[in-house]
Write a structure and sequence with these properties.
Elements lengths: L1 E5 H13 L3 E7 L2 E20 L4 H11 L1 H22 L16 H5 L7 E2 L2 E2 L3 H5 L2 H11 L8 E2 L3 H6 L9 E9 L7 E12 L4 H19 L3 E13 L9
Parallel strand pairs: 1-3, 8-9
Antiparallel strand pairs: 2-3, 3-9, 4-5, 6-7, 7-8
Length: 248
């Protein structure tokens, strides 16, 4: 497993690894079908990253320096991230009697191949709904049994498997598993394992790992323990924009 110190090292090395991956042709991006776009892909890509900054401004500025989508939509991404942090990490009923006003889905702004899919009057799913109750439940379990291996919180659920052949959204994230472990430095920390079935490097990698790291830090704070590495495993790590030539 590759170990990266920070997002600067991770971005450059991941970009190089994907650029050397096999060429693929995708006929579908989420519910948009009948397309043919070419890109590069790495299967079963795993790495750990030790330091992800917490302030949104640092993430946005980094994105602007390294990704075209962030240069084009930095304000929209910043606003979306601030809202997602509130929705995912604060102990609120996800049905919400007075929900926050919601801007157009940022994921669709970032990736023009996507389009809104509503089932009835509601989106196919929300991460807020899938994470409802996760933090207090995980904290209780880790306080009771700090060495437990059972604290996996699923995002991808059975109903998604029944729907993956249909023209609808299904989660890219499979789930999160926080564990209290010593990974070799003699000090126990809260390690976060983050599993994804699919990740578009150019558009969603940075926000995916940023929100996962904040989730990790909230749990660590409630346990009064320092956060450790974020270990990220992606089944299909791909790019439709990355350079195809050798990158050094």
């Amino acid at each position: 497993m590759r170990v990266f110190q920070d997002i600067h090292e991770a971005e450059s090395e991941i970009r190089r690894d994907i650029s050397k991956g096999p060429l693929i042709t995708s006929t579908r991006v989420q519910q948009q079908t009948g397309i043919e776009i070419q890109g590069r892909e790495r299967l079963g890509y795993q790495y750990s990253i030790l330091d992800i900054p917490e302030p949104i401004d640092e993430i946005i500025n980094f994105g602007v320096d390294h990704f075209v989508s962030y240069r084009n939509y930095s304000d929209e991404i910043g606003a979306w991230l601030a809202e997602e942090i509130y929705r995912r990490l604060f102990e609120e009923d996800f049905y919400g009697t007075a929900p926050l006003p919601r801007d157009p889905d940022c994921s669709e702004t970032l990736h023009p191949l996507l389009k809104s899919t509503l089932e009835g009057n509601f989106p196919s799913y929300t991460y807020q709904a899938r994470l409802s109750g996760a933090i207090p439940h995980l904290v209780r379990a880790l306080k009771k049994n700090p060495d437990t291996r059972r604290t996996f919180w699923p995002i991808y659920q059975a109903q998604d498997a029944y729907r993956f052949g249909e023209p609808t959204r299904i989660p890219c994230s499979l789930g999160y598993q926080p564990m209290i472990r010593d990974l070799g430095n003699g000090e126990k920390r809260l390690v976060m394992f983050y599993l994804e079935r699919s990740c578009d490097f150019d558009h969603f990698w940075l926000t995916d790992i940023y929100l996962a790291s904040l989730f990790q830090k909230v749990i660590a704070t409630k346990l009064d323990i320092d956060p450790g590495a974020l270990i990220h495993y992606v089944i299909s790590f791909h790019s439709f924009d990355v350079e195809t030539e050798e990158i050094y």
